[in-house]
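INFO worker-7 received task bundle
INFO bundle size: 2
INFO processing item 0
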Amino acid sequence: MKLEAIIVEDEETSRAILRNYIEKYCPIVKLVGEAKNINEALVLIRNHNLDLVFLDVEMPYGNAFDLLEKVGDRQFETVFVTAYNHYAMDALNAHASYYLLKPISIDKLIEAVDYVKEIKEKENSLINNVIKPLTNSVSGKITIPQQNGFEVIDVMNILYCQADDNYTHIFLRSGKKKLVSKTLKYFEDILSSNGFARVHKSYLINVNSVVSYNKGKGGSVTLANGKEIMVSPSKKKMFLAFFN
């Protein structure tokens, strides 16, 4: 497949270096335009069905985060390219797929492109198809502590688990919610073999309860009860691997 992409970078020399690296080492990327500020970038984004945007942080007339806010919901993946490593957390919060530091490492660039390629291939394979989890429903139960003992829960009745510091909220198909004094990591360890996937630092979902996947921004899933949960870019590939 080809990834249609643009470069958003205000420095001409930096644009040229990245362009040359992409053309030489990333043949699956088709560059369809370049922009030196967020206004030019908005025009390109609105006029192309992009798969990938290589995005510098600091630019005239606003920065990368201003651009993404103006774009709103988006179908493309974002690779941040910047000389400043202190933007890493902001990039993560902006649902970036990858974060490249200048001077650009060719190996890291190839890695970033390959990562996006895997995501887009899996997303495209799901378009207009019925979602079928590859994992089989496994009959199993867990126990959660109660004041006077414990309660037994069928794991397939769990829709999702949500972290709350050292506690976890367990949401059931019945609409009931349980609060357990265990971390989300604890439940991830015991439920991962039962078709549960960690899609976000705060969420563990029952893959069999997923009714749709939405490509916008970092991606999100809608569960059987209508709950929409964001999929972290770092978890997206692992989650998509549950589906054919």
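INFO item 0 finished
INFO processing item 1
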Amino acid sequence: MKTLSPQKVALVTGGSRGIGAATCLQLAKAGYAVVINYTASQAASDKLCESITLASGTALGLQADVADETQVLAMFAAIDAKFGRLDALVNNAGVVDITARLDEMSVARLKRMFDINVIGSLICAREAVKRMSTRYGNEGGAIVNLSSAAAKIGSPGQYLDYAASKGAIDTLTMGLAKEVAAEGIRVNGVRPGIIDTDIHASGGIPDRAAQMAPQVPMRRAGSADEVANAIVWLLSDAASYVTGTTIDVTGGR
């Protein structure tokens, strides 16, 4: 018989920076034990764990590349061993690439984009369902998938591959929500717009948030905390009758 943590447990993939880190902090304040997944940024994960612990919270950093099934399975096994439960999953891990047109993109770029952004989210959701569903003797849970406004806009001439990967996330959210709705699991999504995080630097345009702000109806970029607010609400009991929904956090864009 497994020993269950008295706290609800949340896993945030890509949780050491940006929207993921803001979500981890808010979930810890809401009383969750937080599992911070990261691929390479152990120092950032350790710092975030320390911040949560100093505030009397519970945090565990776990390294895993979500595109690698073996690493994902090891991560979930570590959660099982440490906590014996999983109540919330935030599928936040994702990448962009340098701006390009489709006719300039290599197959290697496309495979990397979909392996991380889509297949990684599918694998993590699959493992979460096994640990949440009443079908497997569990008590339910909630999943939030991070999409993007790019899924609706298309990002022509910039990140068409990223936009397509996030369109797949929208479909995952809708379909999985219906698949597990009767098993105690709610599945929702959040589409951030122009958010001031370092993901833009990884796409080769570090000041993109400032550049794009005038095109946003609210005339500013959003913050990681503003996105995290929506994620944490969707995971909470306040959203108990919400599933299959994706919320735009875009400043009206």
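INFO item 1 finished
INFO post-check item 1: The mean pLDDT is 94.
INFO post-check item 1: The chain has nine helices and seven strands.
INFO worker-7 idle
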